[in-house]
Amino acid sequence: MRVLAFESSCDETSVAVLADGVLRGHVTRTQTLHQAFGGVVPELASRSHLEQILRLTRQALTDAKDSLEQMEGVCATAGPGLVGALLIGLNFGKGIALSLGLPFVAAHHLEGHVWSAELNGEKIPTPFLALLVSGGHTQLVLVEAFGHYRLLGSTRDDAVGEAYDKVGKLLGLSFPAGAAIDQIAAEGNPSYHRFPQLMMGEDLDFSYSGLKTAVLRQVQKLEPSEVQAHRADLLAAFQESAIALLTARLRTGIERFHPRALVIAGGVAANSILRKMARDIGRTSSLPTFFPDSSLCLDNAAMIGYIGEKRLAAGQRSPLDAPVKPRWSLEELREPENSISQKVISQTEYNDCTATSQS
Ligand code: KG4
Ligand code: ZN
């Protein structure tokens, strides 16, 4: 099945063409206009998606050497994410589905991240433990099967990527700072300072605001020249603490739920130390560890097309009035009546809905 997919939940505008789970064309544009503000400005993000989406769609189709008429389905991210940003990709996708009379899936962004490692051509054995780490999310999920997710833990405050970005800003790095911190910290000494590691007992939740504040306090204690001289050391110490919490949760998750594999996904999954430590944990637990290709760690439409195509192939359709869901738990996908993308409507209902929208 050949599908066209759209992702616009935050600051990446991305369009992909896939056929039978294999990527044919894929264009992702990360918005740089937010750098001046040190974080994503929602209104600017929406406007930029709107300006780029048509051009990127043409580019993805050209790269795939396909035409719109060859598409057999359309998928677009419906949530979670920024409401205005989501509306652009979702409505654009619906428009194309409507005009070509194609089946449509309103996709869950995090479900895309969960399965993004399969785009490398490997199949992940279930049940597996997925650590979803990005600028907006930090979750530990037990994936029982496709569409069946159990949220084991999530952040109580900041996401881990958000902590990287805020600490980076504090130390003069531009947004988003995760990749730069990863590089600079490699030159630093993590023992330079010991930041607190908030483990919260047996809980599987995460918390990053305390660590962020501890870095701020430490920077305030130092002279600007000391901060400059020890920037790599401060970042290495921060990173050690940030990743220790993630790996502690992975270990506990393995002990309690006995998964058959580990998956690390989302923007922070590109982190070199996290990759190394997760691989070590996998090795000592005799579990295969999967990561998406580093080009597929950040938000992208390839992962949306991958899961959308699975749903389309299973006969699932979302109605063309499916709303954006800025807040949307993976667990809701279990219950078809609450879920947009799992809601199966008959072909007659689908045709009615299309006819109503066309009239
Ligand atoms: O998944 P993503 O593209 O967007 C969200 O859904 O948030 O993740 C972006 C996040 C940013 O916070 C960025 O700083 C972080 O991923 N990031 C990294 C690395 N590369 C990107 N964090 C740590 N190490 C990296 N190498
Ligand atoms: Zn994401």
What does this structure look like?
- By secondary structure, the protein is α/β, with parallel strands linked by helices.
- It has helices spanning 42-64, 83-100, 109-115, 160-170, 178-185, 209-221, 224-229, 231-257, 272-284, 301-313, 347-358, and strands at 2-7, 12-19, 22-30, 73-79, 104-108, 128-133, 138-145, 148-154, 261-265, 289-290.
- Helix 3 (109-115) packs across helix 10.
- The protein starts with a strand and ends with a helix.
- Residues 337-344 and 353-359 have low confidence and may be disordered.
- It binds 5'-O-[(R)-(carboxyoxy)(hydroxy)phosphoryl]adenosine and zinc ion.
- 5'-O-[(R)-(carboxyoxy)(hydroxy)phosphoryl]adenosine (KG4) binds next to helix 4 and helix 5.
Features:
359 residues; alpha/beta; Nucleotidyltransferase, domain 5; five-stranded mixed β-sheet; 11 helices; globular; disordered C terminus; binds 5'-O-[(R)-(carboxyoxy)(hydroxy)phosphoryl]adenosine; binds zinc ion
